Structures are given as structure tokens and as C-alpha cells.
Structure to design on (36 residues):
């Protein structure tokens, strides 16, 4: 699927090696030129 240009945000949850859970959101921008 081709992503439409715009701002996206991906939520992530990572289990660290020491047993703690790291959560956050990674925003990224899809430029119109990249969707071509």
C-alpha cells in the first residue's frame, strides 16, 4: 500500500533486556515525492 503524504505517528512498546518496558510514539513525515 502507498502511504498518503502527511504526518504519521507510530506507537511502539519495547521490552528492554533488564525487564523494563519502554513505550513511546515515533512521528514521521511522508513527503509527496516519496509516495510516487
Amino acid at each position: 500500500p502507498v502511504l498518503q503524504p502527511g504526518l504519521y505517528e507510530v506507537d511502539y512498546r519495547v521490552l528492554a533486556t533488564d525487564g523494563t518496558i519502554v513505550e513511546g510514539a515515533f512521528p514521521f513525515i511522508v513527503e509527496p515525492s516519496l509516495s510516487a
Summary: The CA atoms of residues 13 and 19 lie 12 Å apart. The first strand starts at residue 6 and ends at 15. The chain has a mean pLDDT of 87. Residues 6-35 form one domain.
